[in-house]
Design goal:
Layout: E1 2-13, E2 16-27, E3 31-35, H1 42-49, E4 57-62, E5 65-66, H2 72-78, E6 80-83, H3 95-105, H4 121-133, H5 149-161, E7 167-171, H6 179-192, E8 197-201, H7 205-211, E9 214-219, E10 222-227, H8 229-234, H9 236-243
Parallel strand pairs: 3-8, 3-9, 6-7, 7-8
Antiparallel strand pairs: 1-2, 1-4, 4-5, 9-10
Helix pairs in contact: 3-4, 3-5
Length: about 250
């Protein structure tokens, strides 16, 4: 079943073309990587897919719905979620409060200002479940600033899971992580996002080739090729423009 389809998507800023005639589709439960050198347009593509910026041309379909001009929060309600390359956590709040806010933010429930955020048992139980997934329940009362960078990246990802998404976009999820932390990330995606479709961009090729079932290569705003990790590793065009050609 196709869950995300992009048709002839284009974007430009001040006359500079950033995305040009982008077309691809992703099937349910697929793990797809987007790679390309700096400036290729990866984050811009993610911003267009999630509704942060509108496309100049083309269409976007999410779970059969045309979401090309739909707001970000409506796309979330349909089942789309994302994490960001730079942490967007509330650093002055506790870990638990960050997770509870993420859970409340995707619900239509009316909340009372005079009740504490922890008074809603269903949300509290969901927060505990998410934090236990990454072994951080014991740190629930710690401020975000007390967590390591790797732990904060894990929190970013579980916040993306708070809305129970069908499609998850991860923007450079392993940025700044050690090899061991990247290994934990692979474990998270494989074990906690099994039924979700994951579309992620990364410079960490070890992460890409160990996690992705399919790889899309973006170069100067255009898709130059796509295929399995094995096909991408031996593709002469990819070796020339991204991996480097052996002489």
């Amino acid at each position: 079943m196709e869950v995300l389809r992009v048709e002839h998507l284009s974007q430009s800023f001040g006359g500079l073309s950033v995305l040009e005639d982008i077309s691809f589709s992703i099937e349910a439960s697929e793990k797809v990587a987007l790679i390309g050198p700096n400036g290729a347009g990866k984050t811009t593509l993610f911003n267009v897919l999630t509704g942060f910026i509108p496309p100049k041309a083309g269409r976007i379909y999410l779970l059969g719905h045309d979401v090309t001009h739909m707001s970000s929060h409506r796309r979330i309600s349909l089942g789309l979620s994302r994490s960001f390359q730079i942490n967007t956590l509330f650093s002055h709040l506790s870990l638990l409060t960050n997770v509870l806010l993420a859970i409340q933010g995707v619900q239509t429930t009316r909340y009372q200002l005079i009740r504490p955020i922890t008074a809603y048992k269903g949300n509290f139980d969901k927060a505990q479940e998410l934090l236990e997934l990454v072994g951080l329940w014991g740190e629930r009362d710690s401020p975000i600033t007390a967590l390591s960078h790797g732990q904060q990246r894990q929190v970013e990802i579980i916040l993306a899971l708070a809305s129970k998404p069908r499609v998850i976009l991860l923007d450079e999820p392993s940025a700044g992580l050690t090899s061991a932390e990247s290994g934990n990330l692979v474990h998270m995606v494989r074990n906690f996002m099994g039924d979700s479709t994951v579309f992620f961009c990364a410079h960490d090729l070890d992460l890409v080739f160990s996690l992705a079932e399919r790889v899309v290569v973006l170069y100067y705003g255009q898709i130059v090729t796509q295929g399995t990790p094995e096909e991408i590793q031996i593709d002469p065009k990819v070796r020339e423009i991204y991996l480097g050609t052996e002489r």
